[in-house]
């Protein structure tokens, strides 16, 4: 079956006005735009705020000898409104891609900064937009193998207010935590599901 391709392209959108309305740790632009409609013709002109985050990457660290995953735990302000869950999240090693830096290089840099571990060539998993309804963030996901016996401690850059705890879990425990909603961010969920599918397809585990 052929892959489904969108009917329209970027050229089918007209941005009539765009200006920066906020600049802080992140930035927000306000756009006036219109686009072609499936029924024909053009939409009315309307406004949208676009949250600018740019490129990011995350890497799933896995120890195949011990069947353990290496995750990190840190405070996340976006989870403060939750009435039932801690704002400290279990996540993949991840970060923003600097200008002129490749996502692969960022993955290696962040693994060292956040865990003290070094990795070789990271395997590409997928790329996706985190919340395209209002944010431009595009995330590249990678997989890398490590020796989890060397993974421990608290890491991060104090000048960036990072306070990151390394957490090593058996893969089965991490999968259970995901299924229970304790691992609740898209990057970690996608990567752990990818790892589980890989195990099933290799015959190492039943579906």
Protein traits:
single chain; 207 residues; alpha+beta; Nucleoside Triphosphate Pyrophosphohydrolase; 2 domains; eight-stranded mixed β-sheet; three-stranded antiparallel β-sheet; 3 helices
Largest β sheet strand count, sense and barrel closure:
8 strands, mixed
**Average pLDDT for all residues:** 93
List low-confidence stretches. none
Order of helices and strands: EEEEEEEHEEEEHH
Going by CATH, the architecture of the largest domain would be: Alpha-Beta Complex
Helix content: 10-25%
Q: Into which percentage range does the β-strand content fall?
A: 35-45%
Write out the CATH superfamily name of the largest domain: Nucleoside Triphosphate Pyrophosphohydrolase
Describe this structure in words.
There is one protein chain. With 207 residues, the chain is of the alpha+beta class. The protein folds into 2 domains: 10-52, no CATH class; 55-201, Nucleoside Triphosphate Pyrophosphohydrolase, CATH 3.90.79. 18% of the residues lie in helices and 37% in strands. The chain contains 3 helices and 11 strands; from the N terminus they run E-E-E-E-E-E-E-H-E-E-E-E-H-H. The protein has helices spanning 103-115, 171-179, 186-201; strands at residues 13-23, 27-35, 46-52, 55-63, 68-75, 88-91, 93-96, 123-129, 138-145, 154-155, 164-170. The strands form 2 sheets. Strands 4, 5, 6, 7, 8, 9, 10 and 11 form an 8-stranded mixed β-sheet that branches. Strands 1-2-3 form a 3-stranded antiparallel β-sheet, with no helix packed on it.
Describe what is shown at a glance.
It is built from 3 helices and 11 strands; from the N terminus they run βββββββαββββαα. A hairpin with an 8-residue loop joins strand 8 and strand 9.
